[in-house]
Specification:
With 362 residues, this protein is α/β, with parallel strands linked by helices. It has a domain of 251 residues: TIM Barrel. Helices cover 47% and strands 11% of the residues. It contains 16 helices and 9 strands. The strands form 2 sheets. It has a 7-stranded parallel β-sheet with strand order 1-4-5-6-7-8-9. Strands 2-3 form a two-stranded antiparallel ribbon. Strand 6, helix 13 and strand 7 form a beta-alpha-beta unit. Helix 14 packs parallel to helix 15. The structure holds coproporphyrinogen III (CP3). Coproporphyrinogen III binds next to strand 3 and strand 4.
Amino acid sequence: MSVVPAESTAASRRQLLDSPFLAALAGKRPSRRPVWFMRQAGRSLPEYRALRAGRDMLETCLDPELVCEITLQPVRRHSVDAAILFSDIVVPLKTSGVGVVIKPGVGPVIDAPVRTRADIDALPSPSPEGLEPVGEAVGSLIAELGQTPLIGFAGAPFTLASYLVEGGPSKHHATTKALMAAEPETFAALLEKLADFTISFLKVQLAAGVDAVQVFDSWVGALTLADYRRHVLPHTQRVFAEISEFGVPGIHFGVNTGHLLGAMAESGARVIGADWRTPLTEAAKAVGPGFGLQGNLDPALLLAPRPALEAETRRVLAEADAALALGASGHVFNLGHGVLPETDPGALTAVVDLVHNQPVGE
Ligand code: CP3
């Protein structure tokens, strides 16, 4: 499959006029409350575990048939209002030649951490050709999904940088923050380069027809507002600016970002995801009127007995209504971060049913 230029696909992009998810993103009144879950595909589903058994994660991400099937599994099971492409934020690094593996139970691990100017200069440039299986999977999914929209995604430059600098998952992102403080120009060069990977990964998915994109800056909440504004926001702004020609709605999300939400709303995304710590009313005030909100049930609550889960779901919906009254342009129900692996999938289906059965807020 060749990578189709933006102009031709913008014209031919399918229009899902009745999609509650796309209506909410566009600030229109949806026919029902839209809901999907971060990490809705994956380990909570027995059918996923069966398919992945003995298969490497990154190889799975580059097998269009498997990507298609895994992406569809939660849509079939839960009747969520959107599918999210099954992939990973490190896929564009892998396909461009960066030494990275996903270790089961750990996450992405980098062969040679990137910590100096020379390390950064030695990084390859993004190679869209290597991402052809991803474009192919998106194309097949669009055909299979019918009226259900497909969300594409990428990791934001800071979150990618954290994996490259630390060499793997990290709790405190200390080496990354130390590099940012000690060598701001080196750090800027790294984020500049990683933004190119983010943009390239998103463009392959957009050219193949995804209906919305989410940019995950999962770990950016570790920064102060001042550091976020100075060292991160300009790069994220470039990401959203470079994909704006596609005319596709963008969502921006990170964990522990209560103090950053106002600044994240300057990224170019029209919808901001909040984790469970920040009430949606607070998020609405932080981002200001005219932005959509996504979130924010604590994923841990899916492990609670059903009455507690239902009460929390209703509380989030009431918060969302109050956020709309404060000027938020729409609400997409989601978790405050990804589905935990030990989650009973029945709890997810129950949340979808409950959300769909509540009247749409004003
Ligand atoms: O969770 C997030 O914050 C979203 C952003 C993100 C993704 N991958 C997107 C993703 C991040 C931070 C990663 C890195 C990563 N990759 C981790 C986290 C490690 C850490 O630092 O704590 C892990 C464990 C992986 C490996 C990985 N990615 C696995 C094993 C899977 C399969 C599904 C599962 O959860 O077991 C993934 C899939 C994945 N990564 C998706 C996304 C958006 C799948 C699509 C979906 O959301 O359903």
